[in-house]
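Quick one, tokens below:
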């Protein structure tokens, strides 16, 4: 591309980009800008209407702009303004309606049509095979122009209305540029447009009138892009098969094959595969030979992969599959300097990224994850910013849930998944205000007016709390209370309460006042308690499992030291549900474990209830589900007692064989949730019952082997202490 421009020496360049992008050309001269990037055009008062125009360093448009900046010559964006292109109603006519299917296939995808005629399924591969590595660019342009001219004759010069209007606009801009007195114009456009942008066409259609089109206010911005998105964006001309290979060809075509094979060998060695220098040379030679057999001037990505698979993978693609993402696609993400940002919110957001050193995560496929210790002021500031991102609707940071927070509740664990769409989400939000707090206020105001999902509103309240933006708490709380007044379903109410309880847990960590939150929770918890029992009666097993989740969440509410209200009401309801024969046995069993574990019921009452549940008049399936509820997320301590084991043993022994087979899988599942030590102790009590507790204690104490281990342990501690003192 550059060689062709240098040989031609144009006075001006016209590039197939929307007219609104022209003022951004100078930004590509910024030394800090890194490709790939994209021109983003969006409607100012409706950011849901937008389109991207991505390009990498090796894209013709990018190179043409760089050349024009270096030579300081006229550059024009000659495509139809996005202000018109974004309105689909502008292009209702169907000039191509008279074409037959064969002709339509040409206009819809001319390169694809030619590729299929040559037996290629992949247009990109066909283009690479025949044109991409053509060394004589003068001859290349003539061949492409002849091909497109012939195809346009076959399709009678017709196309969809938008394309025809775009080409009218291109001719208009080229004509205007000629009127500036320039003598040599270089036109950078898609191959299909070439035949209608020649000098004779421009002169013959000089007076053509462009249809009167509707317009909308438009802004155009530069945003970062990524190699992953270049390869996925095959519907656009920038969509390519291998960004890494295209970059290698662009930077040094003479050594591109050697570079690519060396890179493949290096990546395989990182996975401890032995690849020698001789094998790298053999793979290069094989790629050249494959290109010759396939009548290609130079190897393409397909030949490289085939050669690497044969030599490095010994005929198997499994080795290459491991490194294919890095080797074929790459993980490069572009960068647009802060000086090029025009929207205040975007500028503030990216300045915060820079200040908090989060730029390394604002890229495609970041290598690291982030663990925050909220006791540190800087980490707390990062956490608040990440939750502000969530409130802004910029979905790139996700808090990871870990099963065991060994470092305590003051730690947060984050992972990141940036994409160019994250930039669009940021811009959409930026239209609501000039600062992060202003935009969050605008978004929350919209949500308060329109949102009726309690779970979404509860999450908004939680994120507001953790983001340090508390001004919306009273309004959000009032909205939640109002919506919950008519809501009786405890499952739905629980979705609202769950994130609020989480917020209650971290209140002191986030340095916030919890009065409003506690007041809201108290009202909702009262409602859930009062309706929980009636909604757990005569329900199926699936519903009971869901209610069990609500039960666990509800009980966790009372673990907070600051919570005093509703506790007596909860105790009272637990007693009622435990004795209510219509309550699902899963819930009833959980009630009795909670009562006995919290010392809210006497042990004799628990044994009486167990005897009742194991009575032969009770359906065995009912009893097995009661046991499942009792052991759910619990320990086996209350099944270690002799009286309990005796009751269970008698129940199982009196079961008919068929009923025993039915309940056995459920019992196995229930007891499998216990720890190994608890299961061993229960089995031991059944096989070797101890007469009384005193005998059991003596038996444990009088264990010579155990005593020897204890003596050895204390001797070791003494030695360590002595060496430390010395």
């Amino acid at each position: 591309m550059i060689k062709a421009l240098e040989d031609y020496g144009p006075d001006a360049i016209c590039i197939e980009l929307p007219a609104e992008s022209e003022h951004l050309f100078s930004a590509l001269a910024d030394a800090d800008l890194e490709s790939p990037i994209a021109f983003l055009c969006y409607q100012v008062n409706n950011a849901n209407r937008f389109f991207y125009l991505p390009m990498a360093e090796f894209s013709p448009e990018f190179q043409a702009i760089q050349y024009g900046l270096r030579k300081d010559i006229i550059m024009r964006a000659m495509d139809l303004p996005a202000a018109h292109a974004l309105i689909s109603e502008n292009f209702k006519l169907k000039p191509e309606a008279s074409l037959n299917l064969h002709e339509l296939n040409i206009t819809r995808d001319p390169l694809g049509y030619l590729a299929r005629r040559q037996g290629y399924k992949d247009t990109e591969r066909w283009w690479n095979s025949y044109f991409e590595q053509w060394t004589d660019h003068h001859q290349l342009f003539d061949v492409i122009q002849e091909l497109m001219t012939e195809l346009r004759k076959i399709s009678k010069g017709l196309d969809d209305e938008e394309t025809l209007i775009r080409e009218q606009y291109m001719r208009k801009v080229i004509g205007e540029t000629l009127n500036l007195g320039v003598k040599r114009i270089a036109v950078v456009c898609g191959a299909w447009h070439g035949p209608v942008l020649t000098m004779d066409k421009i002169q013959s259609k000089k007076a053509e009138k462009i249809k009167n089109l509707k317009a909308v206010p438009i802004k155009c911005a530069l945003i970062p892009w990524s190699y992953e998105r270049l390869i996925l964006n095959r519907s656009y001309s920038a969509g390519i098969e291998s960004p890494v290979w295209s970059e290698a060809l662009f930077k040094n075509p003479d050594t591109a094959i050697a570079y690519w094979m060396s890179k493949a060998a290096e990546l395989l060695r990182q996975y401890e595969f032995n690849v020698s220098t001789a094998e790298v040379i053999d793979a290069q030679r094989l790629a050249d030979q494959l290109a010759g057999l396939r009548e290609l001037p130079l190897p393409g990505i397909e030949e490289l992969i085939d050669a690497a698979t044969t030599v490095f993978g010994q005929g198997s693609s499994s080795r290459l599959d491991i490194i294919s993402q890095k080797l074929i696609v790459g993980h490069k993400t572009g960068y647009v300097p802060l000086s090029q940002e025009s929207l205040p919110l975007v500028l503030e957001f990216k300045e915060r990224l820079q200040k908090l050193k989060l730029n390394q995560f604002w890229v495609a496929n970041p290598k690291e994850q982030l663990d925050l210790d909220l006791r540190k002021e800087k980490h707390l500031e990062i956490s608040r910013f990440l939750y502000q991102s969530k409130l802004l609707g910029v979905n790139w940071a996700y808090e990871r849930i870990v099963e065991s927070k060994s470092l305590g509740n003051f730690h947060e664990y984050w992972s990141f998944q940036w994409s160019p769409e994250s930039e669009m989400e940021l811009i959409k939000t930026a239209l609501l205000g000039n600062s992060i707090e202003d935009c969050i206020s605008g978004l929350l105001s919209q949500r308060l007016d329109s949102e009726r999902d309690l779970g979404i509103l509860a999450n908004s309240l939680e994120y507001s709390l953790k983001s340090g933006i508390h001004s919306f708490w009273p309004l959000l709380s009032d909205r939640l209370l109002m919506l919950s007044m008519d809501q009786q379903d405890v499952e739905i109410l629980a979705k609202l309460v769950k994130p609020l309880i989480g917020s209650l847990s971290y209140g002191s960590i986030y340095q916030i006042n919890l009065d409003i939150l506690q007041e809201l929770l108290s009202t909702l918890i009262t409602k859930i308690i009062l309706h929980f029992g009636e909604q757990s009666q005569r329900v199926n097993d699936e519903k009971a499992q869901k209610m069990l989740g609500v039960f666990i969440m509800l009980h966790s509410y009372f673990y907070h030291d600051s919570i005093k209200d509703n506790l007596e009401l909860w105790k009272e309801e637990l007693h009622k549900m435990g004795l209510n024969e219509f309550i699902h046995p899963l819930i009833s069993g959980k009630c009795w474990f909670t009562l006995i574990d919290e010392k809210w019921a006497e042990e004799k009452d628990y044994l009486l209830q167990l005897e009742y549940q194991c009575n032969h008049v009770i359906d065995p399936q009912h009893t097995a589900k009661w046991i499942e509820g009792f052991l759910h997320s619990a320990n086996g301590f209350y099944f270690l007692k002799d009286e309990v084991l005796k009751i269970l043993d008698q129940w199982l022994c009196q079961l008919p064989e068929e009923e025993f087979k039915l309940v056995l899988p459920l019992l196995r599942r229930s007891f499998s949730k216990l720890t190994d030590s608890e299961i061993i102790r229960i089995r031991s009590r059944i096989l070797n019952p101890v007469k009384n507790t005193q005998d059991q204690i003596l038996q444990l104490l009088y264990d010579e082997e155990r005593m020897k281990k204890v003596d050895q342990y204390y001797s070791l501690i003494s030695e360590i202490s002595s060496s430390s003192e010395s």
